[in-house]
Structure formats: C-alpha cells, structure tokens
Amino acid sequence: MTPVRDRTGPSRLLAMVEGRSQQAFQAWLAGRPRAWRDGLEVVAMDGFTGFKTATSHELPEATAVLDPFHVVRVAGDALDRCRRRVQQDLHGHRGRSTDPLYRARRTLHTGLITDRQQQRLTALFGDEDHLQV
C-alpha cells in the first residue's frame, strides 16, 4: 500500500500463501526477515479471522484492515440484504422484474455508474418507501 499512500503508483501483491489457515499465514510471516516484518505498518486482507489473528501474533505493531475489494463487497451485500428486506416489506414477495427495487439491484452493486443510472437511482430513492435502502 506504500505506493498508494505516497502517490507513486499502485499497491502490489506481496505473495500468495498456500493454504487458507491461520497457521499457514503465520508460518509464512514468521519466515520473513525480522527487518521486513518490522517495516510493515498495514496489512490488507479479506475478512477471514485467521489472517487477523496471525497478523496480531507476528506483526503486533501493524494495523490489519480489509482490502478495498472486500470492503465494497461487504457493503454491497449489506445493501442488497436491505433492498430485499424492503422489497418484502413493501410488496410481500421477492423481487419481480417489474419491481423498481429489483430492477436496481445490479446498479446498486456497481462502483462507477453512468449519468443515466444516476438518474434512475435518484428517481428510485425519490420514493419515500425506498429511503430505507
């Protein structure tokens, strides 16, 4: 993340660790040189708690954060659950192709939207029934 913070370029992936476990990640971290580990300030990862635990054991001074992809995914999933709940509360059924909230589901998961999509969302949320979403 240093290049992003310093505005010198994109961040880069340091490694892919085989095995999705706390032990595998902790062993990989322990195998890195002490000077390298001491220089780490932030560790970006998905939400797997084993990674967080391994990071706190091996890099106690580093801050563990969710990577941007997973932050957007978690937020999008929460938004979709809310959209489905409001849909059910308003209409008593799952979304159908003619329902405005159902039609907007893909746009709500999109990071960059067009002017036309923005207009559709503005109209959708102009309806007080949809404000909860």
TrEMBL record:
UniProt cross-references to InterPro entries, sorted A to Z: Transpos_ISL3, Transposase_DDE
Record domain Transposase IS204/IS1001/IS1096/IS1165 DDE: where: 9-130
Domain of life: Bacteria
One Pfam family matching this protein: DDE_Tnp_ISL3
Protein's UniProt name: Transposase IS204/IS1001/IS1096/IS1165 DDE domain-containing protein
UniProt source species: Actinomycetospora straminea
